[in-house]
Each structure stands twice: as structure tokens, then as C-alpha cells.
Amino acid sequence: MYFDVITLFPEMFTAITGEGVIARGIKKSLLSINTWQLRDFSNNKHRNIDDAPYGGGAGMVMQVKPIRDCLSHIKQNNPDTTVIYLSPQGQKLDNKLAIELSKLKSITLLCGRYEGIDERVIQHDIDREISIGDYVISGGELGAMVVIDAVSRQISGVLGNQDSLNDSFSNGLLDYPHYTRPETIDNQSVPAVLLSGHQANIDAWRAEQAKKNTRKKRPDLLIPFSKIK
């Protein structure tokens, strides 16, 4: 999977490329993440990439030409890349969408700042808009990192153990509770079934706990249990 990221703050992405699952995926040559400083595509000596909005109002708007020039440069190597704009107006990211995106070969993530980008880029240069939630943050960088992480873990070999994909949302439910040593601490004990060594009973307990967790914490996610495999 090739990720290209258009941003004003490329140094932010060292937070995911230097450590953890993403770093291991890069080391295994399963992922490639390239960041592009949008100011490098500015056509003025001050390296400006934004201007005041037509019609007035607060803030600045990112201009068309630097973004298009950067996209053209990226597409020289990845002509079929899917261009995604991180936007609160986009499709909300969920596990199903992450799986869908993981089947692509190349993704370009455009990180907006200020009041956003010129609408003509959205209409003519963007393949899809994606949101990480119904709230506003200062820019698209954090959203892009979330997309990269959620998508990358779906790619075979990126996770050390593919069973780790069996987590919250993977089957429409939240995850079951987890426990580790010690067996008892502060008079709180691990459920006996997990110590039984009877895998069928453990699996049944975990499935029931996942349903209970979902019913208690996220009832909006519930689907008819008869359809859950």
C-alpha cells in the first residue's frame, strides 16, 4: 500500500512512521508513506498557499494551484491513486470503510488547514471525502494518521498476529473483556472460565460478553444476534 500525504506539517507524521505497527509495516516493505510539503509547490517567494475567501469571512482558504501541482507530481508515479480529502463533511470512517480502502494500491491524503480548501479542488480533483467524526480539529493531519492506521492494520502481514483483527467492530460488536496476570489483585479475580483451559467455554463466554458490552456501551451498534456468526 502506497500512502502519499499532502500537508503543511510533514514532521507530524514521524509520530506513526517511527514507532509501532505502521513502522513495522514500513520495515517489512508492506507500506510506503511519503509526505509532501505543500509549500514546495507554491509559485511565490513567500511560499504562500492560501488566500482570503471571496465573499469575506474569517480565516484563509487553501488555493487550487499548489494542490493541483502537488497532485500532478504524485500521479507521475501513482497515476491511479485514490485522492482523499480529510473533511468533517465526508463519509464517516468505520471498520467497513477501512477494509474497503485497504484493497486499494495507492491512497493520497490531502490535509486541509485554515477554513479548508477551494471548492473547485473538491469538485474536480478529489475522489472522496472522509471524516473521522462529527467534530472539528485544527487540520487534516490527525485524521490522515487515523486513516493510515485503520487501513494499514487490515493489510495482511502488517500486524504481528492477524487474530488481532478480531477486535471491536470486526463483527458488529464491541470487544470482550481482557485479563492478564496476576490472577487476583485487590480482591478482584479473573473470571474462572478463563482459567479453565476449556476453549469452547472460553469462546462462548467471550461471545456473550461482547454482546453485553455492546448492549451496555453502544446499543446503536446492535444487530440481530441471529445474524452474528
Describe what you observe in this structure.
This protein has a five-stranded parallel sheet. It has helices at 14-17, 20-27, 64-77, 95-102, 119-124, 141-152, 199-217, and strands at 2-7, 32-37, 50-51, 61-62, 82-92, 106-110, 128-131, 184-185, 188-189. It is 31% helix and 17% strand. It has seven helices and nine strands. The chain has 229 residues and is of the alpha/beta class. The radius of gyration is 22 Å and the shape is elongated. Helix 4 packs across helix 6.
Write the layout of secondary structure elements.
Blueprint: E1 2-7, H1 14-17, H2 20-27, E2 32-37, E3 50-51, E4 61-62, H3 64-77, E5 82-92, H4 95-102, E6 106-110, H5 119-124, E7 128-131, H6 141-152, E8 184-185, E9 188-189, H7 199-217
Helix pairs in contact: 4-6
Order of helices and strands: EHHEEEHEHEHEHEEH
Can you list the strand order of the major beta sheet?
2-1-6-5-7
Query: Helix- and strand-based class?
Result: alpha/beta
Silhouette: elongated
Tally of alpha and pi helices: 7
Q: What share of the residues lie within helices? A: 25-40%
Q: Main beta sheet: strand number and arrangement?
A: 5 strands, parallel
Mean of residue pLDDT values: 93
Q: What percent strand?
A: 15-25%
Tell me how many strands there are.
9
* Poorly predicted ranges: none
Give the C-alpha Rg.
22 Å
Distance between the termini: 30 Å
What is this structure, in a nutshell?
The protein has 229 residues and is an alpha/beta fold. The protein has helices at 14-17, 20-27, 64-77, 95-102, 119-124, 141-152, 199-217; strands spanning 2-7, 32-37, 50-51, 61-62, 82-92, 106-110, 128-131, 184-185, 188-189.
